[in-house]
Amino acid sequence: MPTKEQDFGEWYNETVDKADLCDKRYPIKGMNVWTPYGWKIMSQIDSFLRREMEATEHDEVCFPLLIPESEFKKEKDHIKGFDEEVYWVTHAGLNPLDIRLVLRPTSETAMYPMFSLWVRSHQDLPLKTFQIVNTFRYETKQTRAFMRVREIHFFESHTCHVDQEDAEKQVAEDVEIVDAVCKELCLPYSLLIRTDWDKFPGAYYTVGIDTVMPNGRTLQIGSAHYYSTNFSKPYNITYETESGEHVYAHQTTLGMTERLLGAVIGVHADDTGLKLPPAIAPQQIVIIPIFKKDNADQVIGVCRDVAKQLKAAGIRVKVDERNDRPGSKFFDWEIKGVPLRFEIGGKDIENGVVTFARRDNGEKGTIGMDSLVEGSKMVLDMISKDMLEAAKAKQQGFVDDVPCMDAVDSIPEGRIVRLGWCGCPECGHKFEDKYDIKILGTPYKAENWVGKCSVCGKDGAKPAYAARTL
After folding, report:
1. Cβ atoms of 230 and 108 closer than 8 Å
2. Number of C-beta neighbours around residue 267 at 10 A
3. Which is nearest to 192 in space by CA: 421, 360, 367?
4. 13: how many CB neighbours lie within 10 A of its CB?
5. Could you tell me which of 267, 394, 284, 399 has the C-alpha nearest to residue 337?
């Protein structure tokens, strides 16, 4: 197996296989089977999204998978953006369909005909909904588990508002939701307003949510969109104002996918296996009994008691009672990325402690039996904090400044650059073409930066970031 530094792509594939997160042998390429361990992690991530949706008064819905072609084609930019990626259903049994059906690549065109029925008055707004479903896109590039697949585990929120101001407040709330979820995953990220040629089809503007992989390439883990009235007009989503006027609603969406799990693997795992943030680990603590023939019953009994205490406190824990050597068990759980390992043997029992080993940095120590719950939670919190800080420091080290295009002949593989950009598409394309790199966009949150355009030299340029992407 290649190391993470030698060949990120091959290392990533092998790590997914070793940890048994999914099975890629299903007979349709890019449509993988979620195994129990992988699904437990993804379900935990989903629980954070649901928590944030409930806290912000979004209601969960579930829309049909199939969309009539007549509805799908109503927004021209949207269909143009997806026309090469969708799967079509053309027959029902042996009978050709009068209207073709599309498997949803995303759900605007499925949901908005219904929104036009649900939204009637200003009192119906804001309408805030979400769903967690599968979407389908014909990915033509090389597929990679959780990062580039054809059947996608997908979270999407869809909202309607009275005007642009209220809709943009929703985008700001979406940013807070992203921050809360990524904190649980110990994932640093950037928020960049995409270029007009790279925004979501049909959006007024798109805020891309990116993180950086160890090879210096960026991975988009989600996006928030302000649609203005670009969808409400073709789908006739109008409301009656207090004065009796009928006006079009303003809309937003937030989308995140199983790429969140792919990002966790890419950012945190090492050459041994996964390193899972405590919040999403199926088992936050694994307990390994260390016993001899004459004290096996005592040691295993204490391990079970410790597990019982921890479970009562809401900590996910497992006692590994397999008939195997402790070293082999250590290795198995390191591959699985369990954040904290407890070792309990005769001497630990005599001393009234458990011995622990952290998966993230290998640090070892002891926790007193009399402060087991408090001590365990403290160490788990430290693991989360340290994982996030380590990932932030790593990602910040990838960024270079390019003040002037004429001074830089090339941008090495694995580097992200900050440039000055006047916003002119011609300058943007010129930069991308010269360096074979993609402008990700300008910061959603303003940076304290003033300079000239790195391409044309015009004053008053904004900072922009460019990278090669996965």
Report:
1. no
2. 24
3. 421
4. 16
5. 284
> Which candidate, 144, 65, 148, places its Cα nearest to that of 109?
65
Question: Cα 342 from chain centroid?
Answer: 30
The type of residue at 28 is I
Options 3.40.50.2300, 2.40.128.110, 3.30.930.10, 3.90.650.10; which CATH number does 8-268 get?
3.30.930.10
- Where are the chain's structural domains? 8-268, 285-379, 399-467
For 60, residues 6+ apart whose C-beta sits below 8 A from its C-beta are 50, 53, 129, 130, 131, 132
Q: CA torsion sign, 199 to 202 to 206 to 211?
A: negative
Residue 161 · residue 249 · CB < 8 Å: yes
Assess whether the region 8-268 and the region 285-379 belong to the same CATH fold. no
**What does the pLDDT read at residue 316?**
98
What is the per-residue pLDDT for 142?
87
| Sheet of strand 66-68: strand arrangement | 66-68, 95-103, 88-92
Output the CA torsion 438→442→445→449 (10° steps).
120
Contact 84, 138 (CB under 8 A): yes
Q: How far is it, in rounded angstroms, from Cα 231 to Cα 237? A: 8
Is there a contact between 60 and 47 (Cβ–Cβ < 8 Å)? no
pLDDT confidence of residue 84: 87
Buried b (16+ CB within 10 A) or exposed e, 144-162: bbbbbbbbbbbbbbbbbbb
Q: What is the CATH number of domain 285-379?
A: 3.40.50.800
- Cβ burial 59-88 (10 Å sphere, 16+ → b, else e): eeeebebebbbebbbbbeebbebbeeebee
Q: Quick check: 62 and 130 in contact, CB under 8 A? A: no
Check the CA dihedral 271-272-278-280 and report its sign: positive
User: 3-state SS string over 320-384?
Assistant: CCCCCCHHHHHHHHHHHCCCEEEEEEHHHHHHCEEEEEECCCCCEEEEEHHHHHHHHHHHHHHHH
- For domain 399-467, give its CATH number from 3.40.50.1100, 3.10.290.10, 3.30.110.30, 2.10.10.90: 3.30.110.30
Binned average pLDDT, 10 residues per bin, the chain of 470 residues: 92 97 96 98 98 98 97 86 91 97 96 98 98 94 94 98 98 98 98 97 97 97 98 98 97 98 98 98 98 94 98 98 96 98 97 98 97 98 98 96 94 97 97 98 94 95 96
